[in-house]
Design goal:
- It contains 15 helices and 13 strands.
- By secondary structure, it is an alpha+beta fold.
- The strands form 3 sheets. It has a 5-stranded mixed β-sheet. Strands 9, 10, 11, 12 and 13 form a 5-stranded antiparallel β-sheet that branches.
- A hairpin with a 2-residue loop joins β5 and β6.
- α5 runs antiparallel to α6 and α13 packs across α14.
- The longest helix has 21 residues.
- The N and C termini lie far apart (70 Å).
- The N terminus and C terminus are likely disordered.
Length: 405
């Protein structure tokens, strides 16, 4: 069958949808208590040293934003209602919405607990991608009761920005070829990879709007920001070649340890589990992933093997996962026989940045995790670790200088 050039070009154009649940944690809370509708809401730790995990649009009008200290948020918006979040509830709603999307689309990526990308490439000439995306959004709203916004364009970056412009609870399409004009009048902070530090550097260069970035030579940005400079220039010009990473519940990371001598030493077993947990959670954070299932395996000296698992709220924080790991071990370890091997697996992985429990953690703990990951990422696993885990593994480290001993 002959295909006209125009039709061939249309088939080669990508159609990427970005879906983002609006103020997800707040919206879930309002599902269970409609008295919260229309009121400024803060979700997060209940102490003054905690941070904001999420906030309602009513609170954002006062300058409140996620990751802000609770104390600061309450100063900006004294009328706000502070709610200690229920991450298990949010995880459950996220699973429900994931199931809806899985049933409705050929290919999707779960970017975080409340954010998705859908690839409708090649389907436009038959169904109309924006119509399909809009129908999917309406189904999510009707079946979950939660507000959600979407953006549709030729790539992930522009679609994500379009979603931000559509919020709250709306949708926006950027037609092929309109990417640069759409981005041009927006603030450079709208580009997903530009955070506070990079935006300040750009402001110091006199760059506040994306149209200025579009007009700058890519080489100039490369000299100022290294490899990221080229990425910034491409995104500012509506260029993003990244593909959809297919979502799979089966993805996991794991670690096993076979002891040189079968053991019943509980201190050694706990130390091994601690070291394995730190290793795996460090990998999760490095890969920007979160786990929702924990499994512990025991193999006894007679090779009899048992495994137990538990679902947990999405997390990549060892202080949240360690108690679960130890509880599962003691739930499983009933026979009091010599142990040959223990294993640990984290599964149900999704891409996401909720790397810490914002409902419990202080700014100090958040900063500690960030510092630990930077050091271990630069100098290697176990450069800094819990003292109990130093004895485990082929290398031992001095926790004060990170050197092998």
């Amino acid at each position: 069958m002959l295909v006209k050039k125009g039709e061939e070009d249309a088939e080669n154009k990508r159609n990427i949808v970005h879906l983002d649940l609006d103020s997800f944690f707040v919206s879930v809370e309002r599902l269970y208590d409609n008295r919260l509708e229309g009121k400024p809401i803060l979700i997060g730790g209940t102490g003054d040293r905690g941070v904001v995990a999420s906030c309602s649009y009513e609170a954002r009008k006062f300058g409140v934003h996620s990751a802000m200290p609770i104390r600061t948020a309450r100063q900006l918006c004294p009328e706000a209602l502070l709610i200690r979040g229920d991450f298990a509830r949010y995880s459950q709603k996220s699973h429900e919405i994931t199931d809806i999307i899985r049933e409705s689309v050929p290919l999707f990526e779960k970017a975080s607990i409340d954010e998705f990308y859908v690839d409708y490439t090649g389907m436009d000439r038959f169904f109309g991608c924006f119509k399909m995306a809009s129908e999917l959004r309406q189904r999510i709203i009707q079946e979950s009761g939660l507000p959600i916004s979407l953006g549709l364009s030729a790539n992930k970056t522009v679609s994500k920005v379009a979603t931000g412009e559509a919020k709250p609870n709306n949708e926006k399409q950027v037609l092929h070829g309109e990417e640069k004009p759409f981005l041009a009048p927006l603030s450079v902070r709208k580009i997903p990879m530009i955070g506070r530090q990079t935006s300040h550097s750009l402001y110091n260069m006199g760059v506040k709007k994306i149209h200025t970035l579009q007009a700058m030579p890519a080489e100039l940005l490369e000299s100022a920001f290294g490899k990221n400079g080229r990425l910034i220039w491409e995104k500012a010009n509506g260029i993003d070649r990244s593909t959809i990473r297919p979502y799979s519940e089966a993805k996991s990371i794991s670690s096993e340890n076979t002891f040189e001598t079968d053991t019943i030493d509980l201190r050694l077993l706990e130390a091994t589990l601690t070291a394995m947990t730190e290793q795996l959670t460090g990998k999760l954070r490095w890969q920007q992933k979160l786990a929702s299932t924990v499994a512990v395996k025991i193999r006894y000296s007679d090779f009899d093997t048992h495994t137990v698992q538990r679902q947990v709220p999405y997390t990549a924080a060892d202080h949240s996962l360690l108690p679960v790991v130890k509880a599962l071990f003691y739930q499983l370890y009933q026979r009091r026989l010599l142990i040959r091997l223990i294993g640990l697996r984290f599964s149900g992985l999704v891409h996401g940045n909720y790397q810490i429990n914002l409902f419990e953690d202080s700014q100090e703990r958040i900063s500690l995790y960030q510092a630990l990951d930077r050091i271990n990422g630069k100098y290697g696993d176990k450069t800094v670790c819990r003292a109990v885990g130093m004895q485990v593994g082929r290398r031992r480290f001095n926790p004060f200088n990170g050197k092998e001993i």
